[in-house]
Structures are given as structure tokens and as C-alpha cells.
Specification:
The protein is an alpha+beta fold and 436 residues long. Helix content is 19%, strand content 30%. Strands 3, 4, 7, 8, 9, 10, 11, 12, 13, 14, 15, 16 and 17 form a 13-stranded antiparallel beta sheet that branches. Strands 1-2 form a two-stranded parallel ribbon. Residues 359-390 have a biased composition (Low complexity).
Length: 436
């Protein structure tokens, strides 16, 4: 077990380690939010919100069954993370669930009588404004002593409120109207003591969409109004040392195979060599993922190459750039960044060697004829990855917070492991990573 007061074994929501992990998590949060060429009219931007979607349960089940998976492009009503952790007797678990809440942006024209009429687009002070869907980042935070979770399952309900705001355009030719529907959810925590060295535990975090306002036969766009989008989870705390689910120690490998992760997968986060923070993501990542230091900003498409996207964005026509700026403020910021990028920053996008190692000594040698023998050399690998809770005793009370609304502890519920996540929906162990 790592020293709870040290760098390894202790995770705080403030500090460089968490900030570095947040940079990766933000890339997940906005992955696919808006794709090149960043225009509303592009076919790629007409079907959005592809990862980590937790829709209302009745709607998701009516459009199911959802294929069991660790991650990917699915609309489910729940996510479940299970991971192994070594803990001190007074350990405290801290969970942060992060997601997007969709927000429609309507455009309304004002007539001479002061009445407003919805329109598709409107120009004000030389700027075009388009109707489009935006998103608001939300999170809910839970802090609870590990001893409480060992005693039984704990449920915490949270929500993001609906609402409406208006923005008068310059010169008052009309206004923008932003509308949100409420989102309701519940996160359930449970821990169990396992046989093994070093106070080994299995920790489970399950998040469900509990909203009931969406009819089962509603179209997808309507269901997304009440959905959690790009849902992912940070797990940390005090007195905790997490074990890798990708490359666990041999003595706990069997316990890792028994962990059940549904539509999300946990990896160690933060700096290499630390074990105090886990990021459970709907996009499969390696342990200790990092955003490439050469990348000057998010392009919302981590599967692409920054240099290529930057070059292609630069050669958009003036009309295409005008539409992109009118589509979303994030698209406008991307255009501003690439158009003002200094040459030395652009040069860094061309590539970087992360490691250069010779072939293993045990590799069999090849001896083709001298006339046709090619030259053999080590290959350079160029990689690009995606992408404070003070100490509390076991007798402390639970805490919960959410930026979108109140988090309320629910009544303790019995463990329904077999019912809630049936065997055919579970994903067992590390071998699933290669298959996903």
C-alpha cells in the first residue's frame, strides 16, 4: 500500500495530477462534439453525441437491446465501473461524475410590433447566428468513508435543472433563446473486502439515468434532451491505492477478471507511477493517458492527426469559415487558433519520437541473399495519446455536491448485482480490452 500522505495513494481534486487528468477527461467530454469542417450543414455534424450516452431507461430499453460492451457508441441507461483498490482502515472514497447536458439554441427574429418569430438564421452587426444544439458541462461529486460502503450499498441522486435564457443580439434584430430540459440520475457506490495481500477491496460505481419524462417512442433527438452525454467518472480519495485493470499484479489477476465494467472502463490516471486516481471512460484509454504536449488545443476529434486537421481547417473557404463561426463558439475558437498559430507551434505538430529502442536481442535474424537483401533498422515509434478532500476519519459524515443541482443520499438499497447487471451484459477482465 502506498503512503496515503504521499504522491502515490492520495488523490486530490486540486493539483497538477488532477489537472493533467482533467485535460484528458475534457478531451473525452467533447470528443465528437463538433467535427471537421465544423459546419452545421456538414453531414458529420447532423448526428451527434456518440459516446457515453445515458438516456432515460424506458427509452433506452424500448430501443434495445444494447449490446454488452466496455465502451463505444451506444445509448444505454447505465454505466458501471468496478476496480480493485488497497485501502487503509480510515480511507475515504471520492467520486466525481462528469457529463454534458444538451442545450438547444434557437434564433428568433423581432418584428416591428416587438413579436418574436423562430427562424433558422439571423445576421446581426455583421455576424450570422444559426440555430444549433450546444452543451453545458455538469458534474456531481460524492465523498463517503469506505467503511460506509463496506456496510452496504449507498445511493446518491443528483440532477441538472432545466431552464431558459435569452440573449438580445446587437442592434436588437432578434434574440437567441437557449433551452434545457432537466436531467435526473443516480450514482450507486459499493465496496467489498477481498481475499489477498494489502487490504484489497473491489469498488463499484454505477450511474443510471432515472428520468421518466421521455416517452419510449420518442425520437432520439428528444431523448437526448434528458440524457447524460459523454458520461465519465473520476474515482479517488484518501488512503487509497488503485490497481491497474489493464496490467494487474499476478496475485490479483483473478479478482480483476471478476470485475464487471459496462459501457465504460477504468484506467489509472495522473502521472506515471501514481496510483491514487482512476478515470473510467466510455473511450478505452491506456493507464496514465496524456494529451500530447505538442497539441495546442482541442479539435474534438482525437482519432485524427492535429497537423492534418489544422491544415484542412486553414484551407476552408471564406463562406465555410463564416458558417463554422456561426455554428458554435467552439468552432470559432478553433478557427481563431489555427489562423493565428505561430510557425514554431505548427512545426511541432509535424511529429515527435516518444521512444527509440532497438529490436529485442532474441529476435531471429533474417539472412536473405546478398543481391536482394533489404536494409533492416529499428523503427521509431511516434505515439499520440488522447486525448481536495482533506483527510477524514471513518466516523465522518457523507458529503455530496453537484453544480447542476442538489445531490441527495437515498435510502440504502440491497445489492442487486445479478439483476441490475446480468451476466450476459457484463464484461469480464482485461481480455475484453483487446476485443473491444
Amino acid at each position: 500500500m502506498s503512503d496515503p500522505g504521499g504522491k502515490s495513494g492520495s488523490a486530490r481534486w486540486a493539483g497538477s495530477a488532477f489537472e493533467e487528468a482533467c485535460a484528458v477527461a475534457d478531451a473525452i467530454l467533447y470528443e465528437g462534439y463538433l467535427l471537421y469542417p465544423y459546419r452545421r450543414s456538414s453531414p458529420k455534424n447532423r448526428v451527434r453525441w456518440q459516446f457515453g450516452v445515458l438516456a432515460p431507461r424506458a427509452w433506452a430499453e424500448a430501443h434495445g437491446p444494447v449490446a454488452p460492451s466496455l465502451s463505444g457508441s451506444v445509448e444505454s441507461w447505465q454505466q458501471q465501473t468496478e476496480c480493485l483498490v488497497r485501502a487503509t482502515p480510515d480511507a475515504v472514497v471520492q467520486v466525481r461524475v462528469r457529463y454534458l447536458q444538451t442545450q438547444s439554441r434557437g434564433v428568433e427574429r423581432r418584428d416591428r410590433e416587438g413579436r418574436y418569430t423562430p427562424v433558422d438564421s439571423l445576421e446581426a452587426a455583421g455576424t450570422v447566428h444559426l440555430a444549433f444544439d450546444e452543451a453545458v458541462p455538469r458534474d456531481a461529486e460524492i465523498i463517503v468513508p469506505l467503511t460506509d460502503l463496506l456496510a452496504g450499498e449507498r445511493e446518491f441522486e443528483f440532477s441538472a435543472p432545466g431552464g431558459q435564457e435569452t440573449e438580445t443580439l446587437p442592434g436588437d434584430p432578434g434574440r437567441l433563446v437557449r433551452r434545457r430540459c432537466p436531467v435526473e440520475a443516480r450514482t450507486t457506490l459499493r465496496a467489498e473486502r477481498l481475499a489477498g495481500p494489502g487490504a484489497l477491496h473491489r469498488l463499484r460505481v454505477r450511474t443510471e439515468n432515472t428520468g421518466r419524462s421521455t416517452p419510449p417512442d420518442a425520437p432520439r433527438d428528444e431523448a437526448l434532451r434528458n440524457a447524460l452525454i459523454a458520461t465519465h467518472t473520476f474515482i479517488g480519495g484518501e488512503g487509497l491505492g488503485f490497481l491497474s485493470s489493464l496490467d494487474p499484479p499476478d496475485e490479483v489477476a483473478a479478482h480483476v477478471r471478476d470485475c464487471r465494467n459496462l459501457h465504460t472502463f477504468p484506467v489509472l490516471a495522473g502521472e506515471e507511477g501514481t496510483d491514487g486516481l482512476v478515470l473510467s471512460s466510455p473511450i478505452i484509454l491506456p493507464d496514465h493517458p496524456q494529451v500530447a504536449p505538442e497539441s495546442p488545443g482541442d479539435l474534438h476529434d482525437a482519432a485524427e492527426i492535429d497537423e492534418i486537421l489544422t491544415l484542412r481547417t486553414l484551407v476552408l473557404t471564406d463562406d465555410e469559415k463564416r458558417e463554422a463561426r456561426a455554428t458554435d463558439p467552439r468552432a470559432a475558437r478553433i478557427l481563431e487558433r489555427v489562423e493565428t498559430m505561430p510557425p514554431e507551434v505548427f512545426a511541432r505538430l509535424h511529429g515527435a519520437i516518444r521512444s527509440l529502442t532497438p529490436s529485442a536481442a532474441s529476435t531471429p535474424s533474417l539472412t536473405p541473399s546478398a543481391a536482394s537483401a533489404p536494409s533492416l533498422a529499428p523503427t521509431a515509434a511516434s505515439t499520440r495519446s488522447a486525448a481536495d478532500s482533506p483527510g477524514r476519519g471513518a466516523g465522518s459524515t457523507d458529503q455530496a455536491r453537484t453544480d447542476g443541482g442538489e445531490v441527495r443520499p437515498s435510502a440504502t438499497a440491497p445489492d442487486e448485482r445479478a439483476t441490475t447487471v446480468p451476466d450476459q451484459e457484463g464484461c469480464h477482465g482485461r481480455h475484453r480490452v483487446a476485443e473491444a
